[in-house]
Amino acid sequence: MKWLLAILTILLVTFQYRLWVGEGSLAEVSRLKRELAEQQEKNAVLRRANRQLLREVRSLKEGTDGVEAKARYDLGMVKEGETLFIFMQPEKDSNE
């Protein structure tokens, strides 16, 4: 009877060790769930960026309006007869 009790105690301690510290422990599962949530959030951000880029590509392929807007915004291009005004913010004095 003592041997049976000793074996059961050893098995209980072994299983408890694996539950709290070993591979597949509760702490590891919690960490993996946290990492999964972080990765899913990153994936959602990247999906939104991809959708925006896809819209931009379609706009540039479909007509000249997208190309014109891109040229005006990125390159500062103007049409013939237009006047471009650039308003600049005054630089802040670093001594103040």
TrEMBL record:
Coiled coil: 29-56
Signal peptide coordinates: none
Cellular location(s): Cell inner membrane
Periplasmic face of the membrane: 22-96
The protein's role, per its UniProt record: Essential cell division protein. May link together the upstream cell division proteins, which are predominantly cytoplasmic, with the downstream cell division proteins, which are predominantly periplasmic.
Family membership noted in the UniProt record: Belongs to the FtsB family.
Identification of the protein by name: Cell division protein FtsB
Gene field: ftsB
